[in-house]
Amino acid sequence: MRHEVRFSGFGGQGIILSAVILGRAAVMYDSLYAVQTQVYGPEARGGASMSAVIIDDEPILYPKVTTPDIFVIMSQEGFEKYGAQAPEGATMLLDSSLVHSRPQCRVIEIPATRDAKEKLGREIVANIVMLGALVSATRVVTETAIEKAILDSVPKGTESLNLKAMKRGFELARALE
Amino acid sequence: MQGNIACAEGAIAAGCRFFGGYPITPSTEIAEHMALKLPKVDGVFIQMEDELASMASIIGASWTGMRSMTATSGPGFSLMMENIGFAVMTETPCVVVNIQRGGPSTGQPTMGAQGDMMQCRFGSHGDYSVIALSPASVQEMYELTAKAFNLADEFRVPVFLMSDEIVGHMRERIDIPDQVPIVQRKSLQKGTLPFHPDADLVPGFPRFGEGYGVHVTGLTHDERGYPCATSPGLHEDLVMRLVNKIESARDRIADYSITNPEAETVFVTYGPPARSVEQVVRDLGRDDIGHLRLRVVWPFPESALNLFASAKQFLVPEMNMGQVAREIERHVDQPVIPIPKLGGNLHSPDELKARLEVLR
């Protein structure tokens, strides 16, 4: 079962790290295949950043995303550049505290940045809130896998903050079910 | 793991203990990782003042018997050309990684390309032959980097890992073996002149510090290593040996895989377009589309083309304007159709399928 997940936001939100963590969860802890790529250019510093992960249970040949079925959008510019064209059958998680547009497809509104600031005291973990919500809403990897991959990837000393952010993402997504 | 990191890890696993380089996008992660890891295995990392010096440094390190490597991209690769020729002439084993980006000049620093394939083959002056490998996955970044060191030592020649931004920056699953096969550089036999070749046309290596007083020069030299630049016969013999030690081993160096050898339409690929074609073959589920996927591009394994006995046409998607397509044209009578791609994107499976429809 192939999934193509596209992340977009602005440089500094951890858009690329989110994709790396998701790919790591799939490969290391769910025994799936994954390929992570990114738009990699000077415009990504502050501008619209984009990264993508393909997850599949068989080896991935063509490594680039062609038709994403899952979107995680964390800025208005990111929406306009990388989310607005989402196909109708796709699912889009968007940070409703930062994105005012809405797509044609199924949308899951997660106020991740506001929530991270107000409930967790640190805006910087908004991407982990989104990752938690993504996993809870789509089951693209297991909750155990994403937890382990987050712990592998975040700086020492921030583990409990990041796990709280992930769990907050689980809760926000479940509340919408 | 990221492709560039897999390259650095493959190098260390193969016993590379010297890296001299100058950072350049999109190869920088290799230098960063070597800087981090080499000191932990008693290796040496040096950031040199430029790419000319980087290339010179790995040549010097190699003469002490170390496995040495540098990594760069197009603009740096151009600067290395002079000393690459020196490495060829002095028969210095070394590995040069080129994470290709869009050129000419500084071009597209953050976008992938395969535009340096001919530069790698012919970019330094004079006649010579080298070995070039082309990975299409993170796994191959690891394996082919390790293999490059064995080929460099076996043939005493610079070996190129001709990768690109796409594979260099891609992260994917990799299985790291407990150990990689290692072929030792053969030593010079006592009593043999330092540039006297064995039957395989490759001389034994007189490592600095082993007691040999060896003269190493880019000038045409005799078997003692002494300059002898005005003898036509000696120059011809030397250059022909440097070429033939590689070209006569072409089939042994060859590394490729073959899909549907009975097909009439045959794709020939190396690097990332290989994966686009594999996707097309899997999607269409047809056995009348052949695929020759090269992991070694130079020396070109021309005999592999003959394995497609029914081939009516060869299709060659490359992220350049048709560099290897032209090489294939030299070897076959059938039409060779380049599918060039510039700008940094990889051929999509849909665009290759559309191309097949047109050709039907």
Number of domains of chain A: 1
Tell me the CATH superfamily of the largest domain in chain B. Thiamin diphosphate (ThDP)-binding fold, Pyr/PP domains
Q: Ranges of chain B with pLDDT <50 over ≥5 residues?
A: none
**CATH topology call of the largest domain in chain B:** Rossmann fold
Q: So what's the CATH class of the largest domain in chain B?
A: Alpha Beta
User: Largest beta sheet of chain A: what is the strand line-up?
Assistant: 2-3-1-4-5-6
Rg over alpha carbons of chain A: 15 Å
Rg of chain B, rounded, reads 20 Å
Number of domains of chain B: 2
Tell me what portion of residues of chain B adopts beta-strand conformation. 15-25%
Architecture per CATH nomenclature, i.e. the level-2 architecture of chain A: 3-Layer(aba) Sandwich
Oligomer: heterodimer
Q: What is the helix/strand order of chain B?
A: HEHEHEHEEHEHEHEHHEEHEEEHEH
Helix content of chain B: 25-40%
**Overall pLDDT of chain B:** 97
Shape assignment of chain A: globular
> What's the mean pLDDT score of chain A?
94
Give the SSE map.
The complex is a heterodimer of chains A (177) and B (360).
Chain A lengths: L2 E8 L4 H15 L3 E6 L9 E9 L13 E4 L2 H8 L7 E5 L10 E5 L1 H8 L6 H13 L4 H11 L5 H17 L2
Parallel strand pairs in A: 1-4, 4-5, 5-6
Antiparallel strand pairs in A: 1-3, 2-3
Helix pairs in contact in A: 1-5, 3-4, 4-6
Chain B lengths: L2 H11 L2 E6 L6 H10 L6 E4 L3 H13 L3 E6 L1 H16 L4 E9 L5 E5 L4 H6 L8 E3 L4 H18 L2 E7 H5 L1 E2 L59 H16 L2 H4 L2 E4 L5 E6 L2 H12 L4 E6 L1 E3 L14 E6 L4 H9 L4 E5 L8 H11 L1
Parallel strand pairs in B: 1-2, 1-3, 3-4, 4-7, 6-7, 10-11, 10-13, 13-14
Antiparallel strand pairs in B: 4-5, 6-12, 9-11
Helix pairs in contact in B: 1-2, 1-6, 3-4, 10-12
Key terms:
heterodimer; A: 177 residues; alpha/beta; globular; B: alpha/beta; Rossmann fold; eight-stranded mixed β-sheet; 12 helices; 20% strand
